[in-house]
Design brief:
The structure holds 2 protein chains of 2 kinds.
Chain A: H1 2-29, E1 33-38, E2 44-47, H2 49-55, H3 59-62, H4 79-89, E3 91-100, E4 106-118, E5 121-130, H5 132-158, E6 160-164, E7 170-173, H6 175-181, H7 185-188, H8 203-214, E8 219-226, E9 232-243, E10 249-258, H9 260-282, E11 286-291, E12 297-300, H10 302-308, H11 312-315, H12 333-342, E13 344-353, E14 359-371, E15 374-383, H13 385-434, H14 443-473, E16 482-484, H15 486-504, E17 507-512, E18 519-521, H16 523-540, E19 546-553, E20 560-567, H17 574-577, H18 588-591, H19 603-613, E21 617-623, E22 627-635, E23 644-648, H20 652-664, E24 668-672, H21 675-684, E25 689-692, H22 701-712, E26 717-721, H23 727-733, E27 739-742, H24 747-766, E28 795-796
Parallel strand pairs in A: 17-19, 23-24, 23-25, 25-26, 26-27, 27-28
Antiparallel strand pairs in A: 1-2, 1-5, 3-4, 4-5, 6-7, 6-10, 8-9, 9-10, 11-12, 11-15, 13-14, 14-15, 16-18, 19-20, 20-22, 21-22
Helix pairs in contact in A: 13-14, 14-19, 15-16, 16-19, 21-22, 22-23
Chain B: E1 3-7, H1 11-23, E2 27-31, H2 34-44, E3 48-52, H3 60-69, E4 78-82, H4 87-95, E5 100-103, H5 108-132
Parallel strand pairs in B: 1-2, 1-3, 3-4, 4-5
Helix pairs in contact in B: 2-3
The chains are: A alpha+beta, B alpha/beta.
Chain lengths: ~800, ~140
């Protein structure tokens, strides 16, 4: 039996051996560590190469030892406990067991122990897997996740984030997106971005955006969006496409920052920049921007280029003294230093020569100011050539006026002489023949010569009228006042013209109020007025009519005498009454006259002016078919002759010009350069009239006028201002009455206005019950300083 | 026959005056400028001078002053004739002691009237003087 048993053993032994070999190979080649312990003693039976190499030992160093004796395992759970647990449960597992190798490397292992039967004894097999790399990867992954989470929360804190799918639908928004767009997350998710589209950007802009991101490229730009309430906000936006494996966008992450404030500031800045630029480009003054340190030209506006004849590139970048027109100005180092130090340089009148040799005069003002972080010099250059020319013209005009006066005087002489001399001989020889000194004449010859002689007389009258008008227009008409009785003159005219009236079958008489005072008049001139009016009356009154000259105290003004020349002629059409005294009046009224002595239409104009020069007034009342009454009044006391005028104006040239003009007209003139000086002068001697400028430095016109009214009452004032509708005028109105004249006006008009103001202003206001304001005029202005309250409105006399 | 000197540069006017004056019984002669006026006045010793203010070779006023200085013409009445119409002239005319100022174109009748008038009055004065036996000629 022994033999069978032996065979069985041999067979068994062989099989065991084969399995043993296979196991052994696995054991030796395994990529995990394997440790075989004696289950009873815990001593190491065997260890595979992977493990002893991993731990840095040799096999012999490990076999026969307990696990606890080996340094890598010494810190872990005591062998004893582990052993007990193993013995009890047959299984122990450590997911992550940190070991230290012999050479001090830290490794992490997965440790699994099983107890099993090996032959007749129990062994423990420990599988030790190195999980160091796996663990490290895991930790890295974990760290990455955290990092991403941190980044995301930082991003969410900072930016407005939205994620969109390839179809453009919103699949994620952060809180900030919700808050700025004012939509809730629910309202946004699933929508596309049109929900916040502002409509501001052109289609191309949006198309370009999509074209960029659908190609997987990053888009960056600024975009304007619309919030739920319709308000707009600006975003700086980056869209990052996430690509799938095929390289197609899987989703788009849009990260935005709110730049609304910046945008607004930019727009404001741009608006101000644009408007400054526009000013700069469109300015009608030259503007030059220089670098403060170097004096180099930074910019120059088109107006200056045009003025100087340079191109932009020729000037920019050059030093100012390299530009020929300025060579002599700022090249002066002192001037430039002064500008740098004081920040201001001004030339009132700087002659420049342009590139093409023209000479211009400019006003040159330089200021230093801060532009961004550096200082620049801005030079404003105003072409005052025209202004200077105007000034020179004005000066030339003054001179011309002077020359003109002389010329006019010469012209009188020439006109008188050259026209009157031949007229004299013509008339003389005609009358010599008429008188028979050249032999006998027949009736027809006598008649014809009579007509010729009459024409000579007419011509003489016209020449005189022309001379008078010329004198009036040039202010050359002299009024030689004598205190005379008007009665004598009226009677004289009636006597003189009686034959002419009688010849026409018209009665001519006068009716003079007794005991009238003598008045200051120019005898010759009043005679001329009376003759003219009476001759007209005779001319236009048919046979059988009546003409009466009535002299009386003016019914409307006891300070004046009035003469009426009343006829029973055909009357004057109402529409001609206004123009009848005009200089160029040549109405049918004259042309249709029977005897065709139409004249030049100057007679009534001359009458008006002459009466005016006497401080009086002339007017006409007429009724068609019944007759006309021409009336004029002459003040009992002369006013303007030698009247004292105070001119208050801060413009010296203006003062002197007005003085010249008024003195020429025999006014006594004082001038003041300002309100205070005027009041001071008035304190010494009150003038008869004040000519007052409104816009003055120091005490201005209205304030001066107020002071004048307080101290001197209603002294006549003529406000002569260039700003008749400004605030100063309104302020001045508080101290009315005054006469007002808009500056500038013809000098003749100025003189006339002064004259009229002098003697009509206050009486107009004092006599508020004047019939139709017609009977005006006059007392000496000097008598009125104590007059009572001012009238409500100024006299407008523009 | 009274002698009248006409100092007038315009020949036509002078000629017309001559015709008029001769017709009125005066002996009239013409001087066309100031110099001729002075020399003729000295030679002729006229009874009256008609004097244009505007003259070549010195104006009528200067000539009138000359007449006052010359013994031959001192006291000879002067009537001014002028084409100018200037109130200042009248003043000057008075200062020079002239007896009249006529503006061109003048009224011939009035001019002749005032000449006749002058001589008549002078004649009257002479008569008065002769009858009163006065020796000293009266000043105007």
């Amino acid at each position: 039996m022994k033999g069978n048993h032996q065979n069985e053993n041999v067979t068994g032994h062989k099989a065991l051996r084969a399995s043993e070999v296979t196991y052994r190979r696995l054991f030796e080649a395994a990529k995990d560590g394997i440790l075989i312990l004696d289950a009873d003693t815990g001593r190491i039976n065997d260890v595979n190469p992977f493990l002893f190499k991993l731990l840095g030992f040799s096999r012999s160093e490990m076999v026969g030892k307990t696990v606890g004796e080996l340094s890598p395992f010494k810190d872990i759970e005591s062998n004893k406990v582990m052993l007990e647990r193993l013995q009890k449960s047959g299984y122990v597992r450590y997911e992550d067991l940190p070991l230290e190798t012999r050479d001090g490397r830290k490794i992490a292992v997965e440790f699994v122990s099983n107890v099993y039967q090996a032959g007749d004894c129990n062994v423990i097999q420990c599988n030790v897997r190195d999980i160091t790399v796996r663990k490290r990867t895991e930790e890295q992954l974990k760290a990455s996740f955290k990092k991403i989470a941190d980044l995301q929360s930082a991003l969410d804190e900072h930016a407005i984030v939205a994620i969109t799918d390839p179809q453009g639908r919103i699949i994620y928004v952060n809180d900030k997106f919700c808050s700025i767009s004012q939509y809730s997350r629910e309202e946004l998710l699933g929508q596309d971005h049109r929900i916040v589209n502002s409509g501001y950007h052109p289609k191309e802009f949006i198309r370009d955006l999509w074209a960029t991101i659908t190609q997987g490229r990053v888009w960056h730009g600024e975009i304007k969006n619309k919030a739920k309430d319709g308000s707009f906000y600006w975003m700086d936006m980056t869209i990052v496409p996430s690509l799938n494996d095929q390289g197609k966008p899987r989703q788009y992450v849009a990260i935005r920052t709110d730049i609304t404030e910046r945008k607004r500031a930019e727009q404001t800045l741009r608006a101000s920049e644009v408007s400054y630029r526009r000013l700069f480009e469109a300015a009608k003054d030259g503007i030059l921007i220089l670098d403060t340190d170097t004096g180099r030209i930074r910019d120059v506006n088109p107006f200056l280029l045009e003025m100087l004849g340079f191109s932009h590139s020729e000037m920019v970048g050059k030093s100012i003294w390299e530009i020929s027109p300025f060579r002599d100005i700022l090249s002066n180092k002192d001037k430039f230093v002064q500008l740098q130090q004081q920040g201001y340089v001004r030339y009132d009148n700087l002659p420049l020569e342009t590139r093409d040799g023209r000479h211009v005069s400019v006003e040159f003002v330089s200021n230093v100011y801060q532009a961004g972080d550096c200082n620049v010099i801005q030079c404003n250059i105003r072409d005052i050539t025209v202004r200077k020319q105007a000034e020179e013209q004005l000066k030339a005009s003054f001179k011309e006026i002077g020359e003109l006066n002389t010329n006019i005087r010469n012209f009188y002489h020439t006109l008188s002489h050259e026209l009157k001399t031949p007229l004299t001989s013509a008339r003389e020889f005609i009358s010599i023949v008429i008188d028979g000194l050249a032999g006998p004449l027949n009736e027809t010859q006598l008649e014809y010569l009579g007509i010729a002689k009459e024409s000579c007389d007419q011509l003489r009258l016209y020449i005189n009228d022309l001379l008078d008008v010329t004198r009036l227009e040039t202010g050359k008409m002299r009024i030689e006042f004598q205190t005379l009785s008007l009665v004598g003159l009226v009677e004289r005219v009636v006597e003189m013209l009686a034959p002419a009236a009688a010849g026409k079958g018209v009665s001519l008489a006068c009716d003079c109020q007794p005991d009238l005072p003598a008045v200051p008049i120019d005898r010759q001139r009043i005679l001329q007025v009376l003759t003219n009016l009476t001759t007209n009356a005779i001319k236009f009154t048919p046979a059988g009519g009546h003409i009466r000259l009535i002299l009386s105290e003016a019914p409307a003004d006891p300070e004046c005498l009035q003469v009426d020349v009343r006829d029973t002629g055909r009357g004057i059409p109402e529409d001609q009454l206004d123009t009848i005294f005009n200089r160029r009046y040549q109405a049918n009224y004259n042309a249709q006259s029977v005897d065709s002595q139409s004249g030049l239409g100057l007679g009534l104009y001359i009458c008006q002016e002459l009466v005016d020069l006497h401080g009086g007034r002339i007017w006409v009342e007429s009724e068609i078919g019944k007759g006309s009454t021409f009336s004029f009044v002459i003040p009992k006391q002369a006013v303007t002759e030698g009247a004292c005028v105070l001119i208050v104006d801060d413009d010296r040239d203006m003062r002197e010009m007005l003085r010249l003009v008024l003195e020429e007209q025999h006014f006594k003139v004082a001038t003041a350069g300002g309100g205070s000086e005027a009041l001071q002068l008035m304190g010494k001697k009150a003038p008869d009239i004040v000519v007052l400028d409104l816009m003055m430095a120091g005490l201005d016109g209205p304030s001066t006028l107020k002071e004048i009214r307080l101290t001197w009452g209603l002294v006549p004032v003529l406000v002569y201002t260039g700003y008749p509708d400004g605030d100063l005028m309104r302020k001045a109105m508080e101290s009315s009455p005054f006469t007002f004249l808009a500056k500038p006006c013809p000098l003749q008009q100025f003189v006339e206005t002064v004259r009229r103001t002098c003697h009509t202003q206050e009486t107009r206001f004092l006599k508020k019950n004047d019939k139709a304001g017609r009977a005006p005029v006059a007392q000496s202005a000097r008598n009125h300083f104590t007059s009572d309250g001012p009238a409500p409105h100024p006299v407008l006399n523009s | 026959m009274k002698k009248i000197l006409i100092v007038e540069d315009d020949q036509k006017i002078a000629m017309a005056l001559v015709i008029r004056l001769k017709a009125n019984g005066y002996n009239a002669s013409i001087a066309p400028d100031a110099i001729a006026g002075a020399s003729q006045a000295r030679a002729l010793k006229p009874d009256l001078i008609l004097l244009d203010i505007s003259l070549p070779g010195g104006d009528g006023f200067q000539l009138a002053e000359t007449f006052l200085r010359m013994p031959e013409t001192n006291g000879t009445p002067v009537i001014f004739i002028t084409a100018s119409k200037n109130p200042e002239l009248m003043q000057k005319v008075m200062e020079l002691g002239a007896i009249g100022l006529f503006e061109k174109p003048f009224d011939t009748e009035k001019l002749l009237g005032s000449i006749d008038d002058k001589f008549n009055r002078m004649a009257d004065l002479v008569n008065v003087r002769q009858s009163s036996g006065a020796h000293k000629p009266l000043e105007r």
